[in-house]
Amino acid sequence: MSDAERTFVMVKPDGVQRGLIGEIISRFEERGLKLVGAKFTQISEELAHEHYGEHEGKPFFDGLVEFITAGPVMAMVWEGQDATRQVRTMMGATDPAESAPGTIRGDFGLDLGRNVIHGSDHADEGANVREIDLFFDEDELQDYERIDETWLYE
Ligand code: GDP
Ligand code: MG
Question: What pTM was computed for the model?
Answer without folding.
Answer: 0.97
